[in-house]
Write a structure and sequence with these properties.
This protein is of the alpha/beta class. Helices cover 43% and strands 20% of the residues. Strands 14, 15, 16, 17, 18, 19 and 20 form a 7-stranded mixed sheet that branches. α3 links the parallel β2 and β3.
Length: 567
């Protein structure tokens, strides 16, 4: 089995243009991820592959250290932080050395403050972008979407976490699995931790019940990945039934993170896009909520992006109407909301008043509404996840539509601004540039559609990116513009500023095409390397080349998912 896996990954290594990522996934420290990775590395070396060790943690395990013999080890970088010398992986040295394949252990590791990237997985993304293949290791508890579940199972808050997309986009995942009994035996024999840590580990994190549940989580995650990749050829098709997932956010929600992680897992199981929607009421305007509430809301929207959601913000006091209108327009089949625990006063209930959730359930005909108890952060919140409130989900008629294509994003209209610029001016100029490129574009109609959408809610996404967008009647094909402002595009209403603006116009029907393009652009904008390359561009031509390279890398990943061996 190991030989077959090594052969299949070797084929990917030899034919790929961009670096490929292979992850050894385990349910806990000590199952043998690093050992198996080094075994494969030795075989690659025997086959003549130019391989180097970027970073491997042996934790003093003799049998693991033996497997390092004969492998080139790139020296680590020394950093002094608060008077302590710390040895970190030397990213620049790896890229300068340019081996064909590099080993990078512990993918979820947090780098020392002052490093170029905050997380090791971001270092790995740079290595992959340089065309170097990577083999790494990861434990299941480090997945962002499993944070609440792992805390419930083990009682431990996992501080080092990575976005689920890192695993979802890996070219191969290998499950390293041993029984809980065997793992505990290895721990007792001193093969996992040093002697002074053994007893504490056995009675806390390494309890049989914890290990069994973590092992089950790992197997479920692998099954979900296999199923998702098996269905990957259908991923770009317009859905024939309303299976999209949306999660409703509120500035007053006590645990938006749990809500988002649940929605992420649900969307993953359904293999569908998902959206995070925030409706800002008059009482939630930036001038009326305190700085802490604004910070919590901003963090929630950022986490939604990291988990893979397309984020929408709207303004309006009729929250239920706005939610249901979005669900209808974008063919949402599952609405996820949180129950805060606030009750209506008795006199309002006696007069027939109902809560927002009650109205949502009553009016959401044909849609599944999942209500999570988020009144308590942690175990209490997750314990209620299994008790959804549901309406019957009626099948919708299939739609015929052109499939969105990544090729549209390769040749956008591009503008670069060297001076600070206001949001409205930037949008106007970018729209004019699109009109100059596409003579049939009705600019005034497009401007009205864009400003109407901005009035509904800001399209400043965070992560230094804005995405003004609208659907336009009479438009035959989607139109994309890209604006780069080295000193920022300022939004006067909120005081926020971004440096990258994607402008999107797409046909009115069907709405799924519009959302699909939003998802593609959102996925691109989440890549720190793309943002870095775009902002380093001196001309529109250089920016266009950088964008094409990143789009083509996604196309390569998609092609591999559809035709190559995955897990």
């Amino acid at each position: 089995m190991m030989e077959h896996r090594a052969d299949s990954f070797l084929r990917l290594v030899r034919k790929a243009q961009r670096g490929r990522l292979k992850i050894y996934l385990g349910y806990c420290a000590g199952v043998g991820k690093t050992y198996q990775m080094l075994l494969e590395a030795q075989r690659f070396k025997e086959d003549g592959i130019d391989i180097a060790v970027g970073l491997v943690e042996t934790h003093g395990r003799e049998e693991t250290e033996c497997l390092l013999q004969g492998l080139e080890v790139i020296p680590r970088r020394r950093i002094v932080y608060r008077g302590i010398e710390i040895h970190e992986m030397d990213l620049d040295a790896i890229i300068a050395r340019r081996p064909s394949l590099v080993l990078v252990d512990e993918l979820a590791h947090t780098n020392t403050p002052g490093s170029r990237n905050a997380k090791r997985y971001q270092d790995v993304e740079e290595i992959l972008a340089a065309g170097i293949h990577v083999i790494s290791t990861l434990n299941i508890q480090h997945l962002e979407s499993l944070y609440d579940t792992v805390e419930q199972v083990t009682g431990v808050k996992v501080r080092e976490r990575i976005p689920d997309r890192v695993v979802a986009e890996a070219d191969q995942i290998v499950n390293v699995d041993i029984t809980a009994e065997d793992l505990r035996r290895r721990l007792e024999e001193g093969k996992v931790y040093t002697t002074e840590r053994i007893e504490t580990a056995l009675t806390h994190f390494f309890k049989p019940s914890n290990l069994e549940q973590l092992r089950e989580l790992t197997l479920r995650e692998l099954a979900a990945q296999i199923d998702s990749r098996r269905r990957a050829p259908l991923a770009d098709e317009i859905p024939s039934s309303p299976d999209q997932v949306m999660v409703c956010l509120s500035s007053r929600s006590p645990n938006s993170e749990a809500l988002l992680r649940y929605a992420s897992r649900l969307a993953g199981r359904l293999n569908r896009n998902w959206y995070a929607v925030y409706v800002q009421t008059a009482s939630e305007s930036p001038t009326k909520i305190d700085a802490e509430t604004q910070r919590v809301l901003s963090n929630a929207l950022t986490l939604a992006q990291q988990l893979g959601a397309t984020v929408f913000t709207y303004k309006g006091d009729n929250v239920v109407k706005t939610i249901l209108q979005f669900a209808k327009e974008y063919r949402v089949g599952h609405i996820v909301v949180g129950r805060s625990g606030r009750k209506l006063p008795l006199w309002k209930r006696l007069s027939g008043k109902t809560t927002l959730i009650q109205r949502l359930v009553e009016e959401a005909k044909g849609t599944t509404v999942v209500v999570l108890d988020t009144r308590e952060v942690g175990i209490g919140a997750i314990a209620q996840v299994k008790k959804p409130v549901m309406e019957t989900n009626r099948a919708a008629k299939p739609l015929a539509a052109a499939k969105p294509s990544l090729s549209l994003l390769k040749e956008p209209a591009i503008l670069i601004w060297d001076e600070p610029i206001e949001k409205e001016t930037a949008m106007r100029q970018l729209l004019s540039e699109c009109g100059r490129r596409i003579k049939t574009l009705p600019e005034e109609d497009a401007w009205q559609a864009l400003t109407q959408r901005e009035q509904q809610g800001s399209t400043f996404l965070g992560e230094d990116v804005a995405l003004p967008h609208a659907r336009l009647a009479g438009l035959e094909h989607a139109v994309v513009g890209l604006g780069l402002a080295k000193q920022g595009v300022r939004e006067p209403a909120t005081g926020r500023s971004v440096r990258i603006v994607f402008l999107l116009l797409s046909p009115v029907s069907p709405p799924e095409v519009h959302v699909r393009y939003l998802s593609l652009i959102s996925r691109l904008s989440q890549q720190p390397l793309l943002r870095q390359d775009l902002l380093a561009a001196g001309t529109a031509g250089e920016a266009g080349c950088a964008l094409r390279e990143h789009v083509e890398s996604i196309e390569l990943q998609t092609a591999a998912a559809n035709g190559g061996e995955r897990i």
